[in-house]
Design a protein that fits this description.
With 63 residues, the chain is mostly beta strands. The chain has one domain. It is 0% helix and 22% strand. The strands form 2 sheets. It has a 3-stranded antiparallel beta sheet, with no helix packed on it. Strands 4-5 form a two-stranded antiparallel ribbon. Strand 2 and strand 3 form a beta hairpin. It is globular and about 35 Å long.
Length: 63
């Protein structure tokens, strides 16, 4: 999926984004492909976040 297209991170309805885009969840079942995930949104890894900081599955501000 390209930037701004719908995506999903969940196994039951997995629709990943094309690299280097990341899937930012919009609601429980759908997301949108973005270059990086904004603060206070779900993440798995630091590399997904615009701030490069993923803590407790949320993108966080740098300290």
């Amino acid at each position: 999926m390209k930037q701004n297209e719908q995506c999903s991170r969940f196994v039951s309805d997995r629709k990943p984004c094309c690299w280097p885009n990341k899937c930012q969840q919009v609601d429980r079942m759908k997301g949108i492909c973005v270059p990086c995930i904004v603060t206070n949104e779900f993440c798995i890894d630091d590399s997904e976040c615009c701030t490069k900081t993923c803590e407790s599955y949320l993108c966080r501000e740098k300290r």
